[in-house]
Design brief:
2 domains, Rossmann fold, binds adenosine-5'-triphosphate, binds magnesium ion, five-stranded parallel β-sheet, 12 helices, alpha/beta, 228 residues
Length: 228
């Protein structure tokens, strides 16, 4: 079981929307050579820029090529293995995350890990090092990883192993989710944004309503995402 959160492939990804992505790099990854070399792929960037989409697309390609892949968020991983540790079955449970050729660890950095979560994360990265690929997504740059793991020394040790054989895709740009909200008219078009900001005093009274609408739009599109 791959546990992919949604079905997304490369054909559904609009590269023109995200020009910071080097398509050559993506083409190389799609060859799946990195999996045969047990090398890692790290997608870094702000919310909504396609980190999970591209991770899922790579995992799907791996599965289609007959290579095992497993998807989990960093938070769920730490929760699951933390429970296994407390119940004295960490080694057995760890095998689930060591067996597949590709392990996708999504959303590293949104929620900080506690000491146990950090220790387990380190163990997992060490155990997969040069044996199996990790595809990881994070909203935090490497320099900020100390705050995820609560300890700069462990963060450095994790990064050392993770990055030794790896490709980092740094995505800078606007959220695709925001683009959908713009289309629905819930967020002003880009060119009007600056003008709106300069009239912030005049618009102060309507701002809360706009925000509320945008938030509703976000919830709706995210709910839709969850069901696609
Ligand atoms: N360039 C793109 N072309 C087509 N769809 C995209 C593109 N970028 C993102 N999407 C879509 O937008 C939604 C958000 O993308 P995704 O979940 O990959 O974001 P993310 O970078 O993982 O964000 P977060 O950090 O908030 O998890 C998804 O439905 C995804 O399929
Ligand atoms: Mg994501």
């Amino acid at each position: 079981m791959a546990h992919l959160p949604f079905v997304k492939n490369f054909e559904q990804f609009d590269f023109s929307f995200q020009p910071s992505i080097d398509e050559r790099q993506i083409r190389e990854l799609r060859s799946l050579r990195f999996i045969h070399e047990a090398s890692n792929v790290i997608f870094l960037g702000p919310p909504g820029v396609g980190k999970t989409h591209l991770s899922v697309a790579l995992a799907e390609a791996a599965i289609r090529a007959g290579l095992g892949a497993y998807f989990i968020t960093a938070h769920d991983l730490a929760t699951d293995l933390g429970r296994a540790y407390r119940e004295g079955r960490l080694d057995r449970r760890m095998r689930i995350y060591l067996a597949p050729k590709v392990l996708v660890i999504d959303e590293v950095g949104y929620l900080p890990l506690d000491d146990l979560g950090t220790t387990i994360f380190f163990q997992l990265v060490s155990a997969r090092y040069e044996r199996g690929s990790i595809i990881l997504t994070s909203n935090k740059s490497y320099g900020e990883w100390g705050s995820i793991f609560g300890d700069p020394i462990i963060a450095t040790a994790i990064l050392d192993r993770l990055l030794h054989h790896s490709t980092t895709i740094n995505i800078r740009g606007e959220s695709y989710r925001l683009k959908d909200r713009r289309k629905a008219g819930l967020v002003p078009p880009r060119e009007q944004e600056r003008a709106a900001a300069s009239h912030s005093l005049a618009s102060a009274s309507v701002a809360p309503k706009t925000r509320q609408k945008a938030a509703l739009g976000s919830t709706a599109s995210e709910a839709k995402e969850a069901h696609t």
